[in-house]
Amino acid sequence: MTAQLIPRDEAELSEMIRATHGPLAVRGGGTRGRAPQGPAISTTALTGITLYEPGALTLVVAAGTPVAEIEATLAAEGQRLAFEVPDLRGVLVRAGTSTIGGVVAENASGPRRVAVGAARDFCLGVRFVDGRGDVVRNGGRVMKNVTGYDLVKLMSGSRGQLGVLTEVALKVLPRPEIELTLALSGLSVDQAVAAMSAALGSPFEVTGAAHLPGQGTFLRIEGFEGSVAYRAGRLRALLAPWGEAREVPSAWAAIRDVAPLGGRQGDLWRISTRPSLAAGLIARIGADEVMLDWGGALIWVLTPQGTDLRAKLGDLSGHATCLRGTPPDPAPPESPHLAELTKGLRQAFDPRGIFA
After folding, report:
1. What is the pLDDT of residue 329?
2. Do residues 19 and 153 share a domain?
3. At 30, which CATH number?
4. Tally of domains within the chain
5. Are residues 302 and 184 in the same domain?
């Protein structure tokens, strides 16, 4: 079992990092990303909602606070996290409790990203401890060596490589009155991407567009009842060239959590690319176990264990990450230019190389 340091508060976290001489992985609830292979520092004791102003649609919360607790608090006020946090415990075969710090550190975003944006787009502020053990935040004391950086954008998706998040401020949104899902049947990947692109490019405010081969192509509309009914009718007419769009029960929790690929052996890959390239990439891979989200821009692929998927993909316009499996380098390689930028950022925030 991986050794863990569990600080009780930000001050103790800062002292732990100052006293550390070897590399540490940063861990929230351990429900997403790849499991740390060495010593880890956990934020699970840093919990609590610091500030919640429903009228201002603003939430400030400690990084180790469970996502379920946040969602329950927001639901009581008719509000929600707009970016639809995926729960990957099932497909990754993980236990644990998802934390908001882990969500922001992974920039974890579900099907609604196509309409409203990613987690980073709703992050108003961050507070974290860097590799020196210094507390850094935007809007307050800014360390000299990090002046000029957009800390929110840097920390959202940084995966614990620049510092340990201790607090995040988020914008939340009202929960819509109703949700309606339309489904098309029997489409090929090419046809599904064309239909989803037409729907997403329409003025009918589609908030989800996904394709599950053999199951259907799904489109979601949300809002006030009258508006949803009108937009659904117009969307059906728009989709007529691809068949009859039928109203079906919501499938979005399963799509969000990649549930159709759960409970099976193999390596799980996440490919981010242009929707227009999806059909060609899937044909090149030759895999049957796939699903598409974000209108085809996000492809989930289940391959036999040990498959070198990047070799099959070749010169990919996008990136492929292995979330569950055995490749020696699960993260996508960086271009020379990006690698140089990454090196500079790590030198600025973690000059001792503490964060693995």
Report:
1. 64
2. yes
3. 3.30.465.10
4. 2
5. yes
**Rg, the chain, Cα only:** 21
What pLDDT sits at residue 144? 41
If asked whether residues 64 and 23 sit together in one domain, one would say: yes
Regarding whether 157 and 23 lie in a shared domain, the answer is yes
Which structural domain range is residue 101 located in?
A: 4-174+345-349
**260 in a domain, yes or no?**
yes
Tens-digit pLDDT profile for residues 259-316: 999 988 899 999 999 999 999 999 998 877 999 999 999 999 999 988 888 888 888 8
**Residue given tokens 């796939």 in the structure block:** 290
Each residue's pLDDT tens digit, 231-249 = 999 999 999 999 999 999 9
The string of pLDDT tens digits covering residues 157-216 is: 998 999 999 999 999 999 999 999 999 999 999 999 999 999 999 999 999 999 999 999
Q: Give residue 137's pLDDT.
A: 86
What own/partner pairs with CB < 8 Å and gap ≥ 24 does 134-139 have?
134/14, 135/10, 135/14, 135/166, 136/163, 136/349, 137/167
DSSP string, 136-166: EETTS---GGGTT--HHHHHTT-TTSS-EEE
10 plus 136 within the same structural domain: yes
Q: How many CA atoms lie within 13 A of 161 on its CB side?
A: 13
Q: Is the model's pLDDT at 142 over the cut of 60?
A: no
355's CB contacts (< 8 A; 6+ apart) are: 23, 24, 25, 26, 131, 160, 161, 162, 163, 164, 346
In the three-class reduction of DSSP (H, G, I as helix; E, B as strand; rest coil), residue 321 is classed as strand
